[in-house]
Design a protein that fits this description.
4 strands, Growth Hormone, Chain: A, about 475 residues, mainly alpha, globular, two-stranded antiparallel ribbon, about 75% helix, disordered N terminus
């Protein structure tokens, strides 16, 4: 799953059909919107699920996080499915899984039933997380590839913000009670079921976008590949030569598999370990604790439910702002400078949050933070989200779509994304128990990983700004 775009030094002219390419990228990134929506919508349902099924923190964390195991599976199989069925077809299948998961999660009759539907939605998330950046990298003009690849993260944060807004509105309709009656169900059930609407939109958009030129060449459909290249870059005068070059390159390659990622007795290739490291560090800083548990987190330190939902929504807005900043800067300043800036900012923010939570007072339902520490905690949480969004949130997905050699891109991206989802699961499942043990200590752990990401970036991560995909390797 790659592209054969060449970077023309100094090329800054706007492609004549850039609007069409933006539509293609945005349509593919709709999977990212559902990825973000599905990941964060559970935030508004946590306390409702806890009350409905009368479960403790450990069991609740397992049910909330189990979707991420499905996401790891979906990420690992998406590349191979896309090479067999085509990119848009995999998007359509993911849209169907999103819709089924939404309806099933809205109408569970037991906790294990809810868990199964969450896993199904997780598979869809994992597939969307792989197929969108890979597809966009294949169809995007090289000079715009970084910004267009950023659509994935932009869609994710929009999905997160939309889910928080929908949850906030539904909670108010239910008089601030997640288990309040709404449309014949409890409010948290409606929160989970609304996702069927964007899932339908995703499926319809996936029907309208063209197939990847590289996939078409692989299937022997060279005339169709030329037509797509002419659509996305009509100024190109060497379409025949480009298709010929793609075909020549593919004849030199064998079908990608997990064997391409190994190097004998030394295990995985270094570049694959770097991709895994990027994915793992992105999650070990604890970003998804904010999006999965922020409402419960703020309630646990004395903030009322309605205000806690409001603060969850404001962090989503900050997330969008940071993502826009990253989209503007990523092709100008490069991937590594943004990531380094984010690592430093996240470490400071997380350290301040850990300090503030160490002043937690009371027990049971009577828990609070002193005014100063409460203010610091809120500012630090928003600052953490901002620094993550303008750096690791975007940079990791762009790098994973760019950094691997052609012969292994699909397989390596799937392994790296799978590692990301497994790490996400570990963080998400462990947080309720960690928070009950020591909330401040939890944030100190996340702070340590933010600090460790700095030497990792400096020593091992390559800069891919301005390079053609064929140069990777």
């Amino acid at each position: 799953m790659t592209s054969t775009e060449q970077v023309t030094p100094g090329a800054t002219e706007r492609p004549p059909r850039l609007t069409f390419v933006i539509f293609i990228a945005a349509s593919a990134a709709m999977g990212g919107f559902l990825f973000g929506y599905d990941s964060a919508v559970i935030n508004g349902a946590v306390e409702g699920i806890r009350g409905r099924f009368e479960v403790g923190g450990t069991t609740l964390g397992a049910v909330i996080a189990i979707a991420l195991l499905g996401a790891a599976l979906g990420a690992m199989i998406a590349g191979r499915l896309a090479d067999r069925l085509g990119r848009p077809r995999v998007m359509q299948f993911a849209a169907l899984l999103f819709a089924l998961s939404a309806v099933g999660s809205m109408l569970p009759f037991a906790l294990w039933d809810l868990a199964i539907w969450r896993v199904l939605g997780g598979v869809a998330i994992g597939m969307a997380s792989v197929i969108a950046p890979a597809y966009i990298a294949e169809v995007a003009p090289a000079a715009y590839r970084g910004r267009l690849a950023s659509f994935q993260q932009a869609a994710i944060v929009l999905g997160i913000a939309t889910s928080q807004l929908v949850n906030f509105g539904l909670l108010n309709l239910a008089d601030g009670d997640q288990r309040g009656p709404l449309l014949g169900l409890e409010a948290w059930q409606i929160m989970l079921g609304v996702e069927v609407l964007p899932a339908l939109v995703y499926g319809l958009l996936a029907l309208r976008i063209p197939e990847s030129p590289r996939y078409l060449v692989a299937q022997g459909r060279t005339e169709d590949a030329k037509a797509v290249l002419a659509q996305v870059e009509p100024a190109r005068t060497d379409v025949d030569a480009e298709v010929s070059r793609i075909a020549t390159q593919m004849r030199r390659e064998h079908k990608p598999s997990l064997k391409d990622l190994t190097s004998g007795r030394f295990g995985l290739l270094p570049i694959v370990w770097i991709g895994i490291g990027l994915s793992v560090f992105q999650q070990l800083v604890g970003i998804n604790v904010i999006f999965y548990y922020s409402s419960s987190l703020w309630q646990s330190v004395g903030i009322d439910p309605t205000s806690s939902f409001f603060y969850s929504f404001t962090t989503s807005i900050i997330n969008i702002v940071g993502t826009v900043i990253a989209m503007v800067l990523i092709d100008r300043v490069g991937r590594k400078p943004l990531a380094l800036t984010g690592s430093v900012g996240m470490a400071i923010s997380l350290g301040l949050a850990a300090w503030a939570f160490s002043f937690k007072q009371g027990a049971g339902d009577d828990v609070r933070l002193p005014d100063l520490q409460g203010t610091v905690a809120l500012i630090a949480a928003h600052s953490f989200v901002l620094f993550f969004a303008l750096s690791w949130g975007v940079v990791v997905w762009v790098l994973l779509g760019e950094m691997f050699p052609n012969r292994m891109r699909a397989a390596a991206l799937g392994v790296a994304a799978g590692a990301q989802w497994i790490t996400n699961w570990l963080i998400t499942a462990s947080f309720p128990s960690l928070a009950e043990w020591n909330l401040s200590g939890s944030y100190m752990i996340y702070t340590a990983f933010a600090v460790l990401s700095v030497p990792f970036l400096l020593k091992w991560v390559p800069e891919t700004k301005g390079k053609a995909l064929e140069e990777m390797g």
